[in-house]
Amino acid sequence: MKAWRYPIWLLFSALVFSMPVHAEEPPTATTAPYLLPGAPTFDQSISQFREKFNIDNPTLALSEFRAVDSRGDQANLTRAATKINDYLYASTALERGTLKIKSMQITWLPVQGPEQKAAKAKAQEYMAAFIRAFSPTLTAAQSTQKLQKLLTNGKNKPYYAETEGAIRYVVADNGEKGLTFAVEPIKLTLSDSLEENNK
């Protein structure tokens, strides 16, 4: 994973962290407000995730993630991002040292004009694929249905979260400024485990 100090992270800052965009200033990413303190990690590093994702989704390739300058961020986090195209980006919060995933995010910047419909469809393809990557028992149709429900529930809300088992889905909808979808692991408490077993 290469070091990356590219202004594109400022877009994530503006969309997810509600920070002003100033291309001439270095990025100063802060912890996402929805990343829970002491959050666990998924049992895979970002390189393992990317390799499997690209095999499972040959038409939805992810390029190499590059580390983002995270001065002022939590000492135990490393942030990385990759550009998919001009309106779609993937980013991640990683456990420093192991580079295991604490949060996997995809951000869509809406486009106007005739390309809007296709661009939105492609963004949602990636989001549904992210769901399947962490819930592999879901079919393509089921992951798309789950995504649509999440996007509907989170529409026009700066923050919406929903948990299912040990996974937490987050939608941060900033309207015309863009939308971020995240998948994160959560710690199951004893009561959570009992509840899951009784379903």
Task: Give me the secondary-structure topology.
Layout lengths: L2 E2 L3 H9 L29 H11 L9 E3 L8 E9 L2 E8 L5 E8 L7 H19 L5 H14 L6 E5 L2 E7 L5 E7 L4 H8 L2
Parallel strand pairs: 1-2
Antiparallel strand pairs: 2-3, 3-4, 4-5, 5-8, 6-7, 7-8
Helix pairs in contact: 3-4
Q: Characteristics of this structure?
A:
199 residues, alpha+beta, 8-stranded mixed sheet, 5 helices, 8 strands, 31% helix, 25% strand, disordered N terminus, disordered C terminus, DUF1454, DUF1454 family protein, signal
Estimate the global geometry from the Cα principal axes. globular
Q: Largest sheet at a glance?
A: 8 strands, mixed
Integer average pLDDT:
78
Number of domains: 1
Backbone CA Rg:
16 Å
How many helical elements? Answer: 5
Strand fraction band?
Answer: 15-25%
Give the total of beta strands.
8
Query: What is the string of SSEs from the N terminus onward?
Result: EHHEEEEHHEEEH
Question: In summary, what is this structure?
Answer:
This is DUF1454 family protein. It holds the Pfam family DUF1454. The protein has 199 residues and is α+β, with helices and mostly antiparallel strands.
Structure, described:
Helix 3 (116-134) packs across helix 4. This protein has one domain. Helices cover 31% and strands 25% of the residues. The radius of gyration is 16 Å and the shape is globular. It has an eight-stranded mixed sheet, sandwiched between helices. The protein contains five helices and eight strands, in the order βααββββααβββα. A hairpin with a 2-residue loop joins strand 3 (77-85) and strand 4 (88-95). The protein is of the alpha+beta class and 199 residues long. The protein has helices at residues 8-16, 46-56, 116-134, 140-153, 190-197, and strands at residues 3-4, 66-68, 77-85, 88-95, 101-108, 160-164, 167-173, 179-185. InterPro entries: DUF1454. Keywords: Signal. This is DUF1454 family protein.
